[in-house]
Write a structure and sequence with these properties.
By secondary structure, the chain is mainly β. It is built from one helix and 24 strands. It holds the Pfam family CrtC. Keywords: Hydrolase, Signal.
Length: 344
């Protein structure tokens, strides 16, 4: 089971000692340098020797009354490994959000087939299927489309760090989600990501991201990367057509509209207007109160269900999916287990 998230956990003591004093001997090779000329194969989803790596699954399932995301992080800080994962589940019928974090440092990774495991949370590949067992999630996942690499192959910039970026943008999901005392049967379509590289999320870089299923069978990824001061450093958009082919959408603009202030005092843009070649789209959060203060990663972010409407190549479309908006690192006193220089 996930360990209690306090400064006394072994994970917290281990990482604090390493980050602040360099007191521990490195136990894995130093991370490989990012090479923008070596774009990965789309289906090479296994663990890499990277400074930062994560696997991510999210779904906005209105017929089941559930939205969720799961994320598994693998960090190599100067040869010191660290692992964290978390799950957030929203009951779309009541608006209740439950957030669970896993700080266990017993982790295993394998490929092929894909195996991502931390404590008793695990994602495993079994033939053409994937199975996720993580806290409240018990899901079987069947890809509808092949894996893709989003053009130009990564997010970020040399100054802010870069992350290779692969996705399976549609998978059929079925299984159960635990919501309080209720074990709810769920089914619908979900989104899967794998990213890795040399970027430090929340400190070096912040972002506004969408993973969207469109009503014509296409899937849309939007990425707006910002530096620590909030200046936009990269805008990227890719469209995966119904046959599973990814292409860049040029000329993307993401215009902030409505801003919401969280209980922590952070501002998040929750409503957007998007334009790109052949695309106009208005997006809005389905509800506001989705700020998450992750102690295991020391990052504050908003993640929740979004929906919208617009046109693609002149035809009307609707969109549904998840948005993720990173505000930065946790402040002193907010319980972060990772002391990040420059946090305030």
């Amino acid at each position: 089971m996930p360990q209690p998230l306090t400064a006394r956990t072994p994970a917290a003591r281990l990482l604090t000692a390493a980050l602040l004093g360099g007191l521990l001997t490195a136990c894995v090779p130093a991370p490989m340098a990012f090479d923008p000329n070596r774009i990965p194969a789309p289906d090479d989803l296994g663990a890499k020797n990277a400074a930062t790596e994560w696997w991510y699954l999210s779904g906005n399932l209105p017929d089941s009354g559930v939205a969720f995301h799961w994320a598994q992080f693998k960090v190599n800080y100067r040869g010191l490994p660290y692992h964290a994962s978390h799950v957030a589940v929203t009951d779309l019928r009541t608006g209740q959000v439950n957030f669970v974090e896993n700080s266990a440092q017993q982790a295993r990774f394998g490929f092929p087939p894909l195996r991502v495991e931390q404590g008793d949370w695990k994602l495993t590949q079994e033939g053409g299927l994937y199975r996720l067992r993580a806290g409240p999630l018990n899901l079987t996942l069947t890809p509808v489309k092949p894996a893709v690499v989003h053009p130009p192959g990564y997010s970020g910039t040399p100054e802010l760090g870069r992350l290779y970026y692969q996705s399976i943008t549609r998978l059929d999901a079925r299984g159960t989600v635990q919501i309080g005392a209720e074990t709810r049967e769920v089914r619908g379509q979900v989104w899967f990501d794998h990213q890795w590289g040399d970027q430090q999320p929340g400190a070096q870089a912040k972002w506004d991201w969408f993973g969207l299923h469109l009503s014509d069978g296409s899937d849309l990824m939007l990425y707006r990367v910002r530096d620590a001061g909030g200046r936009v450093a990269q805008l990227a958009a890719s469209l995966v057509d119904p046959q599973g082919r990814a292409r860049e959408l040029r000329g993307v603009q993401m215009t902030p509209k409505r801003t919401w202030k969280s209980a922590s005092g952070r501002d998040y843009v929750l409503d957007w207007e998007v334009q790109a070649e052949g695309l106009t789209l208005t997006l809005a959060a389905q509800s506001d109160n989705h700020e998450l203060l992750s102690k295991t990663t020391s990052v504050a972010y908003w993640e929740g269900p979004v929906a919208g409407q617009g046109t693609l190549n002149g035809a009307p479309i609707t969109a549904r999916g998840m948005g993720e908006f990173v505000a930065g690192v946790l402040r002193p006193g907010e319980g972060g287990l990772i002391p990040i220089p420059g946090s305030r």
